Every structure is written in C-alpha cells, then in structure tokens.
Amino acid sequence: MTAHSSRDRNGISRRNFVSLLAASGSATLLGQKGLAFESPVPLPQTPTIPDEAFWRSVREQFVMPTDVSVINAANLCPSSIPALNAMYENTKDIDGDPSFQNRGKMGQGKVNTRKILADYLHVTPEEIIITRNTSEGNNLVSSGVELSANDEVIIFGDNHPSNNVAWKEKSKRFGFTVTEIEVVRPHPGFDYYLEVVDKAITSRTKLLSFTQQTNTFGDVFPAKELCQLAHSRGVLSLVDGAQSFGVMNVDLSDMQPDFYTGSAHKWPAGPKETGVLYINARAHEQIWPSIYSAGRGDVGISRTFESFGQRDEPAIIGFGEALKFQQKIGMQVIQDRAQELSQSLMEQIQSINGFKLITSRDTTESLSVVVFETGSLDARKLYSALYENERIGVAGRPKGLRISPHFYNLHSEIDRTVAALKHYAAVGV
What we know:
- The protein is α/β, with parallel strands linked by helices.
- It folds into 2 domains: 106-326, Aspartate Aminotransferase, domain 2; 332-427, Aspartate Aminotransferase, domain 1.
- It is built from 15 helices and 13 strands.
- Strand 3 (152-156), helix 7 and strand 4 form a beta-alpha-beta unit.
- Helix 13 runs parallel beside helix 15.
C-alpha cells in the first residue's frame, strides 16, 4: 500500500485549510485579485512537441491535489481553474446584486459562450442550443422529432440510457418501432457497422442514433461515415458526443450529423449542468421544442428551442472559459495526449497476469476509455482499494474496471495506477 500525503500542492494541510477557513472566513484566502483560485504557474504556449513538463503545467491549472489521481474522465472531470474563477466571480456578482439591471450583463456572457461553442465545433451560433447535459440534449431530440406508428428508429446496443432507454420508452407512447444494432466485441471494424446499418435501414427508418465513443467498452464508431450513410438514405442522425466532446477534435461541419449532444462536466473539464445540443440548419424544420417557458436564446434555433426558464448564467460563462482553455492548448493536441496515455495504460495492463484487456488497441477503434477484466481478483474490492489506499479514482465494471485518462493526467499517474494493479494482482485485496 502506498501512503498518501495530507498536503496540497501549496503545502497547506487539508485540516489546516479547514481551520483557516472557519477562523478567518473565505475572503482572506482569495488573494488581492479576489480570485477563488490562482494558477501557480501561467499556462505556457503549447510546444510543437509537448513534453511531460508541459503537461505538468497543464495539471497545475486544476485544483485536484497531486496525491489524488482521478482517471475517470468518462464520468466526471475536475473543472479547470479558468472555468472555476469565471463561475466564482459571476456568481459572487449576481448574488451580490440580483436586480434585473445588474443581471442584464450576464446575457452577453451567454451570447459569448454560444459563439465559443460554435467555433469549437466548427458550426454557426444559429445551430447551437445551450443545454444542461447530454441526457437533456438526447431527450430533446427523441421528444422533438415527430414520429408515428409508421416510423422506425435505429439505435446501437451500447448507447447511453438517455439515447437507448429513452427511445424505447417513448416508442410505447408514440407507436414507432425501435431496431437495436448489436455491438460486437472485439471491435469488428468500421466497415462491419456501416454494412449492418446499411442493411438495417428501410423505407420506414426515420432516424439513426448512436454514440461516437462508448462509455461501456471504449468503442469508437465511424461517425462521419454513418452520418453520410443516413443522409444518403433520407434518415436523420443523432450522434451522442458525451465521450467525444472535449477529447476528440470534433468538426461537425465535416461530420454533418443532424443532431449532436455533449456535456461540459466530462471531457471539456467545465461546470456541471451545462451542455450543448447542435441542430444542423437542414434539420431545424424537423424538430419541435419540448419545453416552453420564459427566456430564449439570441440567434437561430435557440430563439424557439432554448426557453428553459431561469438559467445558471455563471456556469454557462464558465463553460465558455473551459472551452477557451482547451482551445489554447489545441484540441488535436488534447486528443493525441489522451490516446497516448490510454495506449500506455493498455500496453501495461496486458502484462498483468490474469487481467484481460477488453478495449481495442487499434487507435482508430478506441481513444481514451480503457476497460479490462481483473480475472479472479474481486473487481469491487479492487475498485475500493485503489481509492481508499492509493487515492486513485476509477470506475467499476461487473468483472473489472474502466480507466479513462485525460489531458490533465500525467504518465506518472498511469504508472502509479499500474503499479497498484500489479501489487493487488500479486497479493490480493
């Protein structure tokens, strides 16, 4: 077992920090600038070939202590300091003066985030809806596309419940048919799924719905080719981007889905309860709003589709700052880093006696979600021991674990995790 330090990177113990907070109030800990969190080191310009020193400077832009290794980006990422500070400053402002007059300026922050999202995804602001998360976006589509008993929706078996169960439950109400494509493993390759979907589409098929990278086994599907296939057959396409938005270099102008969804709290390393629904301009007339309330967006389809009532504008502004932070590093650089860490992890896991790697090592078929079985070792006990004894946070699976590294993780964390796995594989848990 590896002992962990009780000190954060600034040398203040957690116990002393809490005591300071209680004794003197939070204001004294915020610094002269009033920022909740000040970056220890400014983020340097991304080098042509980023080295580990650069990635350590990236890690410094997060408040997660260095002795805590949470490698679970497929579930929840820590927010970057730029996002945290934007949320803190704007929340303090709005709660200090919640008048209509003072809150008015928050609307411009939402406008700015919509523009940042559009640039980030290579589309137009007129096609962007700012949602709470991927689940809301998926359900806005499944509730908003008009479907009848004569229609069919094709889904993939490994879709998230918001993109699988939701379709099945709504089919009971509206009478449309749901056809489920079985996901095969090991990954059979892109051509297999293109052929299966092509054969599955009929004259009744109205929509194809799939996940670009699954959270279940880390399978990556050919999003662009599937969207092209659907469009060529007169079928709408919904791409669940919960596991691609913020880690893949996503270009929706190239992919051309009709709908694409994503969450800020996962790979973008942004605020909770902020997300995106992209609706291609060609599909604006084929979907109805599901929520009618006060408030609306400023341009395009957001004017009719984004009447969600009171929003958390500071979180939306923080969402924009999280995306700007990633853009400063570069999305292709982030994608390459996540895959590099995952490939290192998979290579080392294959050397552990009794462990079985489930995720494909082919870099076209997987990216940043790694799933493996732990053989005779109790996966639930191993999951608990990793955090309780080593301060390593991962996700449990029925027969194993899921580890999903991201750009704020370091190779030393991957190596430390593998060392812990080898230790427990040898001595048990």
